[in-house]
């Protein structure tokens, strides 16, 4: 009996000690998380997209924004990389939006579509603006075996502007335009007609489109106020734009690796700066001229 009691006492002591350690560890972890939430997860009192007010007084609207803010604040590596890339690519995207009369906030649509990378979706959408092949061709992007201009940031942004202007001519509201970029103009219009509403925030939509605009809003808020949300990145860690020169090409290139060497770079660097080149050669149609970007800095060993 005594031996059993001793064994039970020792076992209980071990359990209590382990529990205390786990409690301490969990408590510290919880406190750490609560500090992050307390300091960085406040929702702004007012918010707008393209100067169109977000009705945060509506309960589900506020909670949907809270969800996307909470998710993206805590996607530390992904959000950090997005902020770094934005320093390189926003200076290219912003003037194209402005030239085409598209509000600057739409650069955050590119952020949520691709994280500012030439991504490929499971459905086959590609590039910063995630065009499907047929839509790309409809908006004057070339998609062939040797060229895919969905991967050309400048041309894809121009094509996105054409789509966005077309959608605005239909809806007269930039928030609905953003939703239509995800669901399609016809898809948004069908839901508006079926539900007899004209405001995105009044629509009952599928999960993806329901979250879509709120993802844009969340990334806009986080990126515009990065330090407030714990992303206080020094300037020297941001990816800076790389200076390039443009080489016009109106002739067939039979070996892009050889062409790259003639330009003083290698095939890897050529592809990094011209991801729209889809093969090891380039076939140029009569009357067509392509602009190939050649970096003038950053690649000397």
Automatic annotation (TrEMBL):
The lineage of its organism: Bacteria, Pseudomonadati, Bacteroidota, Flavobacteriia, Flavobacteriales. It holds the Pfam family SLT. Gene3D superfamilies: 1.10.530.10. SUPFAM superfamilies: Lysozyme-like. Belongs to the transglycosylase Slt family. This is Lytic transglycosylase domain-containing protein. InterPro entries: Lysozyme-like_dom_sf, Transglycosylase_SLT_dom_1. It comes from Paenimyroides ceti. Residues 98-196 form the Transglycosylase SLT domain.
């Amino acid at each position: 009996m005594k031996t059993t009691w001793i064994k039970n006492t020792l076992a209980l002591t071990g359990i209590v000690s382990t529990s205390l350690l786990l409690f301490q560890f969990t408590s510290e972890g919880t406190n750490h998380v609560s500090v992050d939430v307390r300091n960085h997860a406040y929702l702004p009192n007012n918010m707008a997209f393209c100067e169109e007010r977000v009705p945060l007084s509506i309960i589900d609207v506020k909670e949907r924004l809270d969800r996307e803010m909470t998710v993206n604040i805590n996607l530390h590596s992904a959000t950090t990389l997005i902020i770094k890339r934005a320093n390189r690519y926003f200076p290219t995207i912003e003037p194209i939006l402005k030239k085409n009369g598209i509000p600057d906030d739409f650069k955050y649509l590119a952020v949520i579509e691709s994280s500012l990378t030439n991504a490929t979706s499971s459905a086959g959408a590609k590039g910063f603006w995630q065009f499907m092949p047929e839509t790309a061709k409809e908006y004057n992007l070339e998609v062939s075996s040797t060229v895919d201009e969905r991967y050309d940031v400048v041309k894809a942004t121009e094509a996105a502007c054409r789509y966005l202007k077309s959608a605005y001519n239909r809806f007269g509201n930039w928030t609905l335009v953003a939703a239509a970029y995800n669901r399609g103009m016809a898809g948004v219009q069908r839901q508006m007609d079926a539900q007899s509403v004209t405001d995105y925030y009044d629509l009952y939509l599928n999960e993806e489109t329901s979250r879509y605009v709120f993802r844009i809003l969340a990334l806009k808020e986080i990126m515009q106020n990065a330090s407030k949300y714990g992303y206080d990145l020094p300037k020297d860690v941001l990816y800076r734009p790389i200076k390039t020169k443009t080489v016009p090409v109106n002739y067939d290139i039979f070996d892009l690796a050889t062409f790259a060497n003639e330009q003083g770079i290698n095939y890897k660097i050529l592809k990094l700066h011209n991801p729209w080149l889809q093969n090891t050669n380039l076939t140029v149609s009569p009357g067509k001229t392509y602009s190939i970007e050649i970096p003038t800095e950053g690649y000397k060993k």
